[in-house]
Amino acid sequence: HTVQRGRMPCAPCGWSDFGGPGVLGAVGILTLVLCSCSGQPASQPRNLPANSSSEHQGGLVFIHMESSLYSLPCSPMEMEVADPTYHWVRDKTGIELFSVTKEGHLLFQHFQAGDSGKYSCTISYMKHGVPVSHTFHYSVFGYHVLGGLDTVLLFHSKLCEDEGNKMFLWVLQEKLRQLEIEQHCKLQLTTTFCFPSLSNPLDEFIVQVQLEVSVFGPHWDKYCNSQDMDMVTDCYRRTVQHNLGQVQFALTRFFKEHKSFHVTGADIPSINFTNEFVSFLKTEQCSGGYGQTKQLQRCLHCCIVCPPGMFSPPKDSQCSPCPVGTYSLIYGVASCTPCKDSMITRVPGASSVTDCVKKERTKQAVSITHRIPVLLLMILPALLAMNFLFIISSCYWFYQEYKASSPRASKMTGSTTSMDKVTNSFRILRQGPQAGPDAGPAGDTSHLATSASQGADEEHMYG
């Protein structure tokens, strides 16, 4: 992804000669300044105003990792002034940078991801007796083209012990040092596995070692000294592919010449590790702390360093924001730093330790949350009691209304009254003449017949 380069008064028009062969001529000087990630040319007027001081945006600068030597001029244009002085600072810290030539160029040697950042240079001089200064601001990003090599090594061994395997890795790494220097690469031994051999599982083990190859060793780019971005990135790609082939050939020859490695020590028994198998796999993955973005639009095979607040694990192709509770302060980190003392960050992508805040800042919300159960315990019994009384009173009221308005209840009340009358009549019949002073003469049978007849009729009626 490459940057759209503007007409670039920041183009390297006058940067090739700063010190001559006696100073930097023997070293490949790579100068590449690229402006305006938005695609708009960051142009500057040819004749800067003669103000006492002024600020200018120099634009974006991309420097390949492990560049042999990169020179960044103070001004993106050639300025002809008398007796200028140059003052470089980084990230507005006020700390002066000392790797500066007398022409005001800031030098980067073996550029690392952590060298990325915001740089400012102030050029000061006298004009018609008036002190004049111009400050130029640059955003410097590291990047690298894609290309690497993963190597799998298998060794036979009679023992499988952690201490013996660690000693073996150290011996192997030391023997590969000379090959690193010759091939301008970096060789890193990684994970080790130990498992029984299939042919002789009781007496023999297989030790598997993974070797990661990076072609960005010291002076890897000594043949790429173009000042044109398209040409230099194309040279980088061709150099990476060529160097990968050379390293693969050198490793194959190395393990043919070194078939056995003897390891011994004070607390380690004598062990031989015999080489059996070497396998190579070319990869195109970003290094840890780098990711593919659209900032470098002209280079589709390039990875840009992750800025503060973001990270990228090894072999990941994207820079991701630091999760909540973590932060990253510098460029090019493979993992973010957790906040201390159980502190948290409010949002992802924190880029400063000051973004970590104590959880007490949410104390009010937590306190309210804790008070809610207590309030419920106090109010709930009263609510339940009121609800129970309401239900009881409603049921009683409904019962009374139902009892007062029911026709069946009225009929049952009338029936009870009639039955009472019948009962009284039968009581009078049983009492006879002695029922009371108002009773008729004993021989008056017609009265009895009449009473009996009336009782029968009432019994038949209400029966």
From TrEMBL:
Keyword Ligase among record annotations: no
Ig-like domain mapped to chain residues: 41-133
Keyword ATP-binding annotated: no
CC per GO annotation: acrosomal vesicle; extracellular region; zona pellucida receptor complex
Membrane-crossing segments per the record: 374-399
GO biological process, one term: acrosome assembly
Biased segments, Low complexity type: 431-444
Pfam family, one: Sp38
Family annotation (InterPro entries): Growth_fac_rcpt_cys_sf, Ig-like_dom, Ig-like_dom_sf, Ig-like_fold, Sp38-bd, Tyr-kin_ephrin_A/B_rcpt-like, ZPBP1/2_N
Segments of this protein annotated with the region Disordered: 431-463
Keywords, ordered alphabetically: Membrane, Transmembrane, Transmembrane helix
PROSITE patterns reported for this sequence: IG_LIKE
Name the UniProt record assigns to this protein: ZPBP2 protein
Organism of origin: Nyctibius bracteatus (Rufous potoo)
